[in-house]
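User: Hello! I'm new to structural biology and keep hearing that structure can be predicted from sequence alone. Could you demonstrate with FAD-binding PCMH-type domain-containing protein? Please show me the input and the output so I can see what each looks like.

Assistant: Of course. The first part below is the input, the amino acid sequence of FAD-binding PCMH-type domain-containing protein. The second part is the output, the predicted structure written as tokens.
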Amino acid sequence: MEYYSPRITFFSFLLASLLISRSVSVDNNITYFLECLTSQFHFSDSINSVIYTPRNASSFSSIFLSSARNPFLVSTSGQRPLAIITPNNESEIQATIRCSKKHDTQIKVRSGGHDYEGLSYISQTPFVIVDMRNLRSISINTKENTAWIQTGTTLGELYYTIGKKTKTLAFQAGICPTVGVGGHFSGGGYGMMARKHGLAIDNIIDAIVINANGQILDRYSMGEDLFWAIRGGGGSSFGVVVAFKVKLINVPKIVTIFNVSRTLEQNVTQLVHKWQYIADKLDENLSLRVFIKSVKSPISYGKNRTIQASFTSLFLGRIEDLLPIMQEKFPELGLVERDCTETSWIESILFFAGFPNGSPLDVLLNRTTQINAYFKGKSDYVREPIPEHGLEGIWKFLNEEDENNGELQFSPYGGILSTISESETPFSHRS
């Protein structure tokens, strides 16, 4: 023991020295970075309300975790940011870019919505976060059917503002109201009206970007190459996108929604199999998604489980026009009038977001929905229909993994999506 003791003591001393050295290095980085920002900001008094650092543990953690939707990533993540900047204007973003370049610090940009994979708040190199949560103004022009939307806005805030302004205009994007506009638009923006009106990026007509040199650019000054890249190619790879100008779409005053569930005992395998052949070929006004999970069997006792598929739909029209389409193309589902509800587009947003019937519109303004479970989400594209025996294999897996609450979501493309060239935007998954 005496022989090994000096080695253990030396190793312990070395480890402690390394930890202290790293702590001092990180602290120095923060100090130099903050000194740079203070000199760059036009109003130094705004520093305290804009910049959060680990030195103020409580406020820093609150901001840092606000976009985290997966505790696993938080607990296992690598290096945390040197600072989080929540700018109130473009000049504060420019200052952050200049100081990051000066001190060789990576910038990660997030919209203040939610991030399942930690891409906006985890890194293995020194970095700062530019959190756009304070830049969330929305300006709607009903005469031109356009809107300027700052990228700190959530989809819920966007839909709420449109719904309060007009009953016949809308925007095509996702169903989750806590998603940030900046990340959602930069990645494509699939939603329930995509088969009729394309992705969110297909309706972007201008943008404001601050590039790596701190220049503020619009579509004309940035050029068509950069404008192409930020619509589906990951906007933060090319600069900080401050705002998007979008084309609003016309929607009927009355739309139809339904959610019909079937189980294995109700031929769900055959229904999902048939769905694969018709969902992308239906009337473009109709989007029919399927949500599949394992549930306790309603006709047996004990631990027996079954597969439930929920066929969830938005139709841009009335029930009387929807039913003939479904009876012709998908009679096996057995859709009838009592399964359907006529409503407005903005009320359909509440329905697809899972809010109880009769919920006030202002629930869309809530940005703080937190998921406390450890989970993993993944998307992929199925180009050939899965045969029935393949579906049965999936059902077996879901039933075995019921404790993990696994779920599959099938979303159809087709419609206008199939008519847009794969090279139109960086989002190439069109057909």
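User: So the tokens describe the shape?

Assistant: Right, they're a compact way of writing down the 3D structure. Reading them back into a model, for example: The first helix runs from residue 5 to 40.
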